[in-house]
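New to this. Help decode the following:
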Amino acid sequence: MREYTIQGDATGKRYLRIIGEISSGYEVVIIREMDGYVREHHDIMARHLFDTCLRTGYLTPRETAPDVELRSAVS
């Protein structure tokens, strides 16, 4: 899985994990760690939005375990 750090304030850590790919973008999980709690939010992210976030530095790649093949959803 590919993971990215989400730029933000100092109140906690936020990550974006790509869990799948669809024709218009990606299936993602946004993970927020704050005050000893972890919250996960599943969503769809448009490909152009993801590309813009990478280009502007809002998302930066994380060093994680080696990439695994993404599962494709049938559209």
About this structure: The first strand starts at residue 2 and ends at 6. The radius of gyration is 13 Å.
